[in-house]
Amino acid sequence: MRSDLAALFIIFGGSGDLAQRKLYPALFNLYRKGYLKESFAVIGTARRPWTDEHYHEIVMASLEGFEEDDETKQTFTSHLYYQSHDVTDAEHYETLKALAAKLDDKYQLNQNRIYYMAMSPRYFGTIASHLGSEALLTADGFNRLIIEKPFGRDYESAKALNQELTQTFDENQIYRIDHYLGKEMIQNIVALRFGNGLLSGVWNNQFIDNVQITLAESVGVEERAGYYETSGALRDMLQNHIMQVIGMLAMEVPVNFSAEDVQREKTRLFRSIQPYSPAEIKQNFVRAQYAETTVDGENKPGYRQETNVAPDSQTETFVAGKVMIDNERWCGVPFYVRTGKRLARKETQINIVFKKTGVNIFADDKSDRSAMAPDVLTIYVEPEQGFSLTINGKEVGQGFSLKPDQLNYQYDKQMLADSPEAYERLILEALNGDGTNFTHWHELAASWQFVDAIRQVWDADQTPLPTYSIGSMGPKEATDLLASTDAKWIFDPTQTKK
Ligand code: NAD
Q: Could you cite one Gene Ontology molecular function of this protein (predicted)?
């Protein structure tokens, strides 16, 4: 048994959707792979008065997709305890503390504790202060706080939340989760960038023309309309996931691949993002809503027709923008970003578009010797995972014309079958005290400030939002963003089937 992996997990929101869909399967994966052995325990807390038996049934149901036999699952769930707990009631922390101490003895947990906030963000501050005031933090083991998104809804609220948390926890005890940083291919970005001389040498504005990041969803708001109405795509996807992807793609080389060095470089990068004036925001950022659309003869509701959405809602379900970075490496290179719901296909893809060099000496038409497709490095994040390099070769046959060819590497299903899911990976990293793939407060502060400026301009502008058809890749305005240059969106499933 590796004693460094002994820990008690206290999950606030233990009956919730995140806990059931992601956290219990992730913990079970760590268990069946041997990262968690005898010395671990979980306390699930929520308001409902459940018994341990009922809690175990709920957890067993969340493990249905696993092939392991029931006995293995039951041995795992025997380490799980339920505590009915109202997070606003100080007395309940006394009960929690007593149970934690008992489990600490029973499973020899070395007083190591991971507090997982898997409930409404409005309680994050309350829970952290009670953990401090009711003395749940242990003196001898580690105390780490894993905190879910959203971390605030603007810079001011994020700052206030951070101040509340840091009264009890130090920055290096806080693990702000962005599950994108737990994805295999997002982690792979640094391997590609810093593990290949071929790429690291050209990873700058001399060779790269533009960078494109697309996080496309095919689903609508589904049951989350209540939350989504207060958030929108800018806060829900751009402020966190897209900004973190930009961070991984564009940060300078960290001294080491460690939390301290990576978080420092990402913070420096975010601080180098060019601030826009209100007029520049209108020019460089586009928002839109999906409209009622007939797909294959069936009428699909637009965003404003969805349940729990205001009929005159100004909440954006799509955002696209051009982000510029004012530093020596990236000056002049647009980072085009795009995310939205009800788009043509669920896919996350990154395209690094290289500058065309020289002239096309093979062009038939001598007056158009620039006609040549750019070289493109594509990183497939999901659902497929892998990368490809599109380069020009000679078209087979007589004559001499250029044709883009793809050097393609896709991880095969077998290889990925047991690869850890984002939550599994990140929980293990937190257990090991490795914060490299979590976000530092300084990164968040800078990204909120960038996003707030956009939000303010949009909130002041009551003109109806542009709309887009369900199954498209967003409004025309998103295509027009690139029109002033020679570039176009590389990923366009409405044009080509991959
Ligand atoms: P949920 O509404 O399904 O669960 C909330 C949990 O909090 C429940 O267990 C509920 O009983 C408990 N709770 C509410 N008030 C309480 C109180 N006063 N005292 C004690 N317990 C109380 O929410 P969720 O979807 O699981 O989301 C939890 C957090 O995770 C949120 O911050 C959300 O933004 C974030 N998140 C969720 C997902 C997801 O896929 N569900 C994805 C990313 C982030």
A: glucose-6-phosphate dehydrogenase activity
